[in-house]
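Anyone opening a protein record will find just a pair of labelled lines. A complete record is shown below as an example:
=====
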Amino acid sequence: MKTKLADLLHELGISKVKLAKFLGVSRQMIYNYLEMDDINKWPKDKKVLLFNLLDIKDIKDIDKIKVDTDYITSVEMRLNSLCDGKNEDNRGVTSDILNGISPKNQELFIGIMDLVKEYLEDSGKEGRDVVNYFYHYLQAMNNTKELKYILAYVAKETGFEKPMEFVFEEDEQFIFESVMFSAMVLYRSGKASKSKLAESHRRFVNQIEQKIEEKLSRTMELNNIKVQALKELGYTEINENNATEVFEKIAEIQSRKTAFKKID
């Protein structure tokens, strides 16, 4: 029982934090419940709440559940309807962080924080690495539109969103999802061996190293311009009093360099 229930909750994307809130217990108690080999050992009211959430009458009905978009949506609506009513304290999130965010977006933000917290607490180094990559993913997303398409593909592939829903540029998203699907089919087939893809991965590494080199070069150039600006103005550092003047000088030096390049 405990394995099937845990697998179903994972497939539905229900975190232990959110389930704990839904049942009105601590997260540690959720761990205790899920370790039990018989759900009849649960407190009766918690068992009834869980059955209502999953829309079943008995734990054996788990085997009959078809996890599709409609089922996931219905479970999520039941989960959120009760969780929203219990959100008086925003689960410890300070009001400053939530300022300017609509109530609906606040719930989304808090839900993400719950999942991140759970990863960091329960998954050790791997969880920390996952969250670290997720952090960099968000940092890069504004500069790379394909990262948004990846999010859409994953949400659809895991059943959380409808496959023919396009919230970004439809034609580009459609093409990207098709390419991603083909790539995932190849990956999961076991035919994409490391030796066959070694050359492709080498080009991938070279491209990244070139970007890093360009970034370092640009950073050094900007630092040199800053030093030059301070020197021309007779300052040794940037502070609150001279910041505007220094930044204007930096912009002036950059424009001079651009003009010289055009003449050359």
Q: What stands out?
A: The chain has four domains: 1-86, 90-132, 144-192, 201-263. The longest helix spans residues 194-233.
